[in-house]
Amino acid sequence: MRAAVHNRRMPAPLTCPFTLEEATIAGVHAAYRSGALSTVELVRACLARIEAYDRHGPALRALLAVNPRALEEAARLDAAWRADPRRAGPLHGIPVILKDNFDTCDLPTTGGSVAMRESRPRTDAFTVERLRQAGALILAKSNLQEFARGGISISSLGGQTLNPYDLTRTPGGSSGGTGAAIAAGFALVGTGSDTGQSIRSPASACCLVGVRPTRGLVSRAGVMPNSLTQDEAGPIARTAEDAARLLDVMAGFDPRDPVTALGVGRAPGNYASALRADALHGARIGLLENLCGNEERHAPVNAVMEQVVRVMEGQGATLVRLRIDGLEELASRVSTDRWEARAAFDAYFAGLGPDQPVTSFRQLVATQTAVPEIQRAMEAELAIEDGLADPEYLQRLANRDRLRVLLASRMAQLRLDALLYPLQRILVVPTGCTEQAERNGVLSHGTGFPAVTFPGGFSQPTASAPLGVPVGAELLGPDFSEARLLSYAHAFEQAARMRKAPRSTPPLSGS
User: Fold this and answer.
1) Which pick of 51, 107, 158, 231 has the fewest CB atoms within 10 Å?
2) Which of the following is catalytic: 119, 193, 198, 511?
């Protein structure tokens, strides 16, 4: 699939005056309306950047497959726009990158696995259907930590994805391919899945906005699973507004994922229109000091978080510093994915049908093709015969409820609108590490509460990181508070202007 795009001569680059690297959905639509830009031109420019930077130049290895019909689909979207722009959907002509565990009927869905490289689902994931209906163009599918198990973004099919801000570091994970690609301007927005912190980790590491939604807001049907209770799907974007626009399309009831019934009537009419530049004025936000380290290795992240506090206070927010006794001990005993993985994966394979290269979790593990740390993890999951009846699993389910009550009650006592903390206590780890250490994403995945990660700032510049390494701050709130959290992130973004494009993927000559 990749060779069809990467080995042919690329079309001429975009010639109209337009800055692709930091383009937004609203900006693209304004350019469409003015006639300064077409979808074909935009897609050509994206493909040129992919050609220049994904396997060449910095060789980010962010993508696993590029849509060979992208220009054909772009031409169709242009024709529809010319016929009647009033009928265009909210994502009309917007190139999107999907993490390669979202089912697509026209491209393989591999999970980054050599064993799954020929897997072709019969239907799109529910969220992919909604993206297409909204006019989005599926441009490519991204590399990831194999089967979304971990935070390094390395796979047997795609190798190690690199962080465009520091090519010696990982891009976070597991949705690191999407993160690196959006940061590098390969497309405008992308999707991720989040069992532990897999949307928010690459958002933090790549100076992006990532949303892990409330359990029940976004369907997980057609997304290769890890867990029955922890998995979520959500947007990754360069701005809070674009993340909101993507969430507007992704959210909705899906009979194939009955938990989405919990979200019916709970979302605002439009997340994007609910954003306010003055949203922080009067907000009460708790800085959760439990999740800020106190060793020398934590100093770069702590410095950024203090800067976040100053900006928020300057925008009229009240920052309350707090600690929650027993939080970390309880949070260490809420993850359920190990006990649920086998059942979740077998249900996914059953939905794919019999004409697939792999038809069961046992068969997948037996291929022995995964990168070593993932292979060992899956073997351990397979060894759990009846995970859903295991006493340890049942205790962890109870702990999840305890964690929800603990956080909600503390927020109520202090009259807090949201909790604030760094997504990762240290800078994103270098390539060659096998774990993404000291991440704080458990509060969201362990409770089902929504979280929004946004660019908080950068560490000090170095030779390998000329802008510094991005540091993401995270806001967490009660169920279905995405509109509030996105509005806070948007207000911070408008005040602080922390977003910077990486130096390793500069504008192309003539673009």
Assistant:
1) 51
2) 198
- 418-456-336 Cα angle (round to 5): 55
Neighbours of 484 (CB within 10 A): 21
- Phi then psi for residue 27, to 5 deg, are -65, -40
**What tokens were used for 249?**
């399309």
Q: What is the pLDDT of residues 108-145, one digit of tens each?
A: 999 999 999 999 999 999 999 999 999 999 999 999 99
Locate the domains of the chain by residue range: 2-496
Fold of 2-496: Amidase signature (AS) enzymes (3.90.1300)
Catalytic annotation on 360? no
Would residue 227 show up in a list of annotated catalytic residues for this protein?
A: no
Is 204 an annotated catalytic residue? no
Q: Give every CB contact of residue 206 below 8 A, 6+ residues apart in sequence.
A: 163, 164, 165, 171, 172, 176, 179, 180, 182, 183, 470
- C-beta of residue 71 within 8 angstroms of C-beta of residue 11: yes
d(CA 413, CA 416): 8
Which of the following is catalytic: 174, 175, 219, 511?
Answer: 174
Rounded CA-CA distance 73/86 in Å is 19
Task: Considering the candidates 38, 99, 113, 119, report the single residue annotated as catalytic.
Answer: 99
pLDDT band of residue 20 (cuts 50, 70, 90) is confident
Pairing of strands 95-99, 137-142: parallel
Write out the DSSP string of 290-332. GGS--SGGGHHHHHHHHHHHHHHHHTTPEEEEE--TTHHHHHT
Any idea of the CA torsion for 324, 328, 334, 338, to the nearest 10 degrees?
Answer: 160
CA-CA distance, 330 to 55, in Å (whole number)?
43
247-264: pLDDT as tens digits: 999 999 999 999 999 999
Cross-sheet strand order for the sheet of 189-194: 63-66, 137-142, 95-99, 189-194, 232-237, 209-212, 451-458, 470-476, 418-422, 284-288, 318-322
CA angle centred on 508, ends 204 and 468, rounded to 5°: 30
Distance CA 343, CA 226 (A): 9
Q: What is the DSSP letter of 166?
A: B
